[in-house]
C-alpha cells in the first residue's frame, strides 16, 4: 500500500461533534498506517469568512487561511468531514472556501480560453458527510444532495481534484450507538488505506 500525504479538515465548527470523532478516527488510523497527516479544525481557525468585495480587491489572508493553502499544496489526498446543514455546508466552511480557494491558487482563467486552468490537479479527495435526514428525503426533495454536489463538483473538481469520493452517513438524528460504532470503523479503514 502506497503511503500518502493526507490533509484532513474537520469542517464542523464544533470539535466535539460526531464529525469531529469521524475526522479524528480517520487521522488516527492513517497515522498508524504510516501515512503522513496534517489536521486542521474549522473551530480553531480564526478568519473573516466574508469575501467582502468578491475578487475586485485583494483581501489579506489571515494565518489560518495561509496554513490551509499550504496544507492543500502539500497534500496528495484531501479529506473533508462536515455536516449537511440547510442542504449545504456550514457557513464558516463555505467562507473558508470563498476566502482561500482563490484565482491563482485553486484555478485560473486565461483570456481566449473557455475553461479554467485547474491548479489543484494531482490530488484526490474523500468527503465524509453526515446528515440528520434519511437519504431518500434529499433525493425526492432536491433530486440529490445539493451541499455535496457543490463541494464535490463546484469546488474540488472545478479546481482539478480528482477523483473525489464521498461517504454520506444519513439518519444521524436517530442513529444508535451500534450504528455510530460501525461508521467509525468504516472511516478508520478509509484512513488505513489512505482513501
TrEMBL record:
Coiled coil where? none
Which InterPro entries does the record match to this protein? Flavodoxin_fold (IPR003680), Flavoprotein-like_sf (IPR029039), NAD(P)H_dehydrogenase_qn (IPR051545)
Which Pfam families does UniProt cross-reference here?
A: Flavodoxin_2
Record-annotated Flavodoxin-like fold domain positions: 4-186
Extract one GO cellular component term from the record.
cytosol
Family label: Belongs to the NAD(P)H dehydrogenase (quinone) family.
Full protein name? Flavodoxin-like fold domain-containing protein
Amino acid at each position: 500500500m502506497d503511503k500518502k500525504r493526507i490533509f484532513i479538515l474537520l469542517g464542523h465548527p464544533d470539535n466535539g461533534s460526531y464529525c469531529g470523532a469521524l475526522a479524528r478516527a480517520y487521522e488516527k488510523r492513517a497515522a498508524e498506517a504510516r501515512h503522513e497527516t496534517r489536521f486542521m479544525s474549522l473551530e480553531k481557525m480564526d478568519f473573516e469568512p466574508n469575501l467582502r468585495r468578491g475578487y475586485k480587491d485583494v483581501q489579506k489572508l489571515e494565518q489560518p487561511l495561509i496554513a490551509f493553502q499550504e496544507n492543500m499544496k502539500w497534500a496528495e489526498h484531501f479529506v473533508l468531514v462536515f455536516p449537511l446543514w440547510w442542504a449545504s455546508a456550514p457557513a464558516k466552511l463555505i467562507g473558508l472556501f470563498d476566502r482561500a480557494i482563490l484565482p491563482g491558487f485553486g484555478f485560473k482563467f486565461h483570456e481566449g480560453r473557455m475553461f479554467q486552468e485547474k491548479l489543484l490537479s494531482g490530488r484526490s479527495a474523500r468527503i465524509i458527510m453526515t446528515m440528520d435526514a434519511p437519504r431518500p428525503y434529499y433525493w425526492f426533495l432536491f433530486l440529490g444532495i445539493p451541499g455535496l454536489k457543490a463541494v464535490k463538483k463546484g469546488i474540488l473538481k472545478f479546481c482539478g481534484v480528482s477523483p473525489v469520493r464521498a461517504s454520506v452517513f444519513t439518519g444521524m438524528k436517530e442513529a444508535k450507538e451500534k450504528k455510530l460504532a460501525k461508521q467509525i470503523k468504516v472511516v478508520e479503514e478509509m484512513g488505513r488505506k489512505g482513501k
